[in-house]
Design brief:
Helix content is 27%, strand content 8%. The chain is an alpha/beta fold. The chain folds into two domains: 179 residues, 3-Layer(aba) Sandwich (Rossmann fold), CATH 3.40.50; 122 residues, Cytochrome-c3 Hydrogenase, Chain A, domain 2, CATH 4.10.480.10. Helix 1 runs parallel beside helix 5. The longest helix has 13 residues. The mean pLDDT is 92.
């Protein structure tokens, strides 16, 4: 559902431009039943090349590792077996979404269905294929994590594969494309002035920074959500909701409620990934002391109470 919201170009136009033929997708393809089986048989025999295998959703291993909780309709074959068979035949393998990459929501709680990702079980190597898996291209599984994914992350990765420009160095330590994973959600956030002054929102409708009280993890989470934007113009934080870390393994089981910031001695535990705690405390104290009254007032308001001062004449140099 997220992928078909791709724009400029739309998803199917992007496939056409890259010369990618969609063999089969459960929502986008007309082929069902025997027609689908014929596609799979063609891949098995080598008559149909499988250049890219994309998996959406977790791999279900339960009960007791049998995979019987999720079988291929009409065959009784566990889907995990079909996925493993196709992965070995594929030129590249893409895990689309956090479920396929790390297990995701399906693996939350007690994980009675024994859900994992393709090569990760949460943040631990494992999953269906194991960390040593390599596709025919020599690349590991490409993990396009997100719940849901931004369509641009998938489209751009497919274009890179089609044009032969994706290199091993273009993936981060978790196999995510660096085209989005080299950024933090914090980058480009419209609330950054409030963050800089540590002027915090106290409830969801407030304009201030969502990190100190409302659980926002944007300074720790790898994604370009506030640079690329969603549906042409928004993101979680721009819509007034804190980042819940959906591109990272284990986001489905946080150690605290999503809308609360865990603290130790009044200091948020989840600090920016590359900032020492002592620096953060010192800078936060200085920032709060220097916070303009305009920023303080607007941070806890639902709309701008005090606009920036209009200065007549030329800006000072």
């Amino acid at each position: 559902m997220s992928l078909i919201c791709a724009e400029q170009p739309d998803f199917l136009s992007a496939l056409d431009a890259a010369g990618i033929r969609l063999l089969w997708h459960p929502s986008l393809s007309e082929a069902t039943g025997s027609e689908f089986s014929a596609v799979i048989d063609g891949v098995r025999s080598g008559a149909i090349p499988l250049d890219i295998l994309c998996l959406e959703g977790s791999v279900i291993h339960g009960p007791n590792g049998s995979g019987r909780f999720h079988v291929q309709a009409g065959t009784g074959t566990p889907m995990k077996e079909l996925i493993a068979e196709l992965a070995v035949l594929a030129g590249d393998v893409l895990a689309i979404g956090t479920c396929a990459a790390f297990g995701g929501i399906t693996a939350g709680g007690a994980n009675h269905v024994e859900a994992t990702g393709l090569v990760y079980d949460g943040s631990d190597p494992g999953g269906l294929l194991g960390p040593s898996f390599r596709a025919h291209s020599g690349r590991p599984v490409i993990n396009i994590s997100g719940c849901p994914i931004h369509p641009g992350w998938v489209v751009e990765t497919l274009l890179q594969l089609a044009f032969g420009t994706l290199r091993q160095g273009d993936l981060d330590a978790l196999g995510r494309p660096r085209l989005y994973a080299d950024h933090l959600v914090h980058h480009g956030c419209a609330r950054n002035e409030y963050y800089e002054y540590k002027a915090s929102a106290e409830r969801l409708s407030n304009l201030g920074c969502l990190m100190e009280h409302l659980g926002c993890m944007a300074t720790q989470v790898h994604a370009d959500c506030n640079i690329r934007l969603w549906n042409g113009g928004s993101s979680c934080t721009r819509a007034g909701y804190p980042c819940i870390s959906c591109t990272e393994p284990g986001f489905e089981d946080p150690s605290h409620p999503y809308l609360e910031t865990p603290k130790l001695a009044g200091i948020p535990i989840g600090l920016p990934t590359d900032m020492p705690k002592a620096w953060f405390v010192a800078l936060a104290a200085l920032s709060k002391a220097a916070t303009p009254n305009r920023v303080k007032m607007n941070a806890v308001a639902d709309y701008i109470i005090t606009p920036p001062t209009v200065v007549k004449g030329k800006p000072q140099k």
